[in-house]
Task: structure prediction
Amino acid sequence: MLKMGLIGLGRMGKYHLNLYETIRGIELSALSDVNKEVLDKTLEHHNVAGSTDYREILDKVDAVTVAAPTKYHHQIVKDCLLADKHVLVEKPITTNIEEAQELFEIARQRGLTLHIGHVERFNGAVQELKKIVRNPFLIESRRVGPYDERVKNDSIILDLMIHDIDIILNIVGKDVIDVEAKGSKVYSNLPDFASVNLIFENNAVANIIVSRITQKKDRTLSISQEDTFVFLDYTNQDINIYRKGSSQHIFGERELRYKNEYITERLFVYKDNPLMLEIRHFVDCVKGNVVRMIPVEHELRSLKLALKVDEIISKKEGRCEVSV
Result:
């Protein structure tokens, strides 16, 4: 039985907490949050150790989930790794690439599992993409929703767009050579929406739009390739595939019309809670039952590109040639 600890009892931390009791092979052993009132209230419903100082719970666990604010990730994760604890940390792991590299190197040296919580990887629809996407030439991604005061101090790129960057990099499988990025502030002191174009070395193009000021929530991905158009809905975990059927020109007395028919296929998707699947994968990696889904170098690649996009927007550069 793997003894788990949870550091951070905010919204994301509570999602993890609610799932711990449903996953075989783990036992919730300790909780930590700097807010004593929140911690004490949570401990009323969980008979485990607790402390406002996360370092005091490390001797009671084998592994931890870190769901604290991003600015504290580096120090917390480093302390956990140096105490020989496996770590699942919510994305982004850090706000600079050097700190992330340091943490993965510590984990490597100590033979520990360090996993970044990119939960969309475990979305059932995303899991099916690898079976149907071969050589995409155009990818369009939208991740938009209403404003939440809770995220006003977070980068929209590191908070939202990093999901899409991560998935698109793994779909295309080629290096990005050019980035164009724009973003604007509306309600907060950081950009509240952004549009990014990525150009890959094989000439594939990806357009990503993210917004936290759109009243209707929409999380979709569309992929164009030579013989098919794929449309994915993250929220419903659905995939529709459109294949070309037949086309014909129709001649009338005063008009010429073009008729194009498509065959639509709705792919069967195994739907489950992506976060639960992610925690299970982490536990299996710790126990040595599986190889990690995403290699470390890919983890760092997604963060590196997200940070570059953030930099382009903040400096109002608009465009930059890169090699990621």
In short: The helical segments are 11-20, 36-43, 73-82, 97-110, 124-132, 156-172, 274-286, 296-314. The domain at 121-274+303-321 is CATH 3.30.360.10 (Dihydrodipicolinate Reductase; domain 2). The mean pLDDT is 92.
